[in-house]
Amino acid sequence: MAFPSESNIRPSQITDTEIVVAQERFLVPVFGTLFEAFLEGKYAELVEEWVKPALAEYVKSSVVQTLGAITASGVVTRTFDGASSASSQEIARVARAAADLADVLRGRAVEIIEQNPMKYPEYNSARNILRKISIKKGILL
Known about the structure:
Number of helices: 4
Radius of gyration: 17 Å
Number of domains: 1
Oligomer: single chain
């Protein structure tokens, strides 16, 4: 979902483990038991519009670093002569951009949920880890 169609990333390159790790690391601590409701198929509109895209970007952030690939040739930088392999800094920048986008998408889902608490009774804002800590650009504040 997070990779462009021309990226040539095969679904088999992204493991279930990578997806579960991203869920456990970035979504479960925020949504708590509401995440279980998502897995049961509840709140499909919220999940499709905000939660799945956030998860896809978190997975992309991880996969870009492990696969080193956005295109068939890897993470590349365009030049007038074609393409060349990306540096570790460029790979890190792509990964950070994906994580930043994921944070925004997840944040919007939280806003929607907190604006409609009766609609999402499984959610407990006091257990949302983002209410306890602050992270900016990957730094725990």
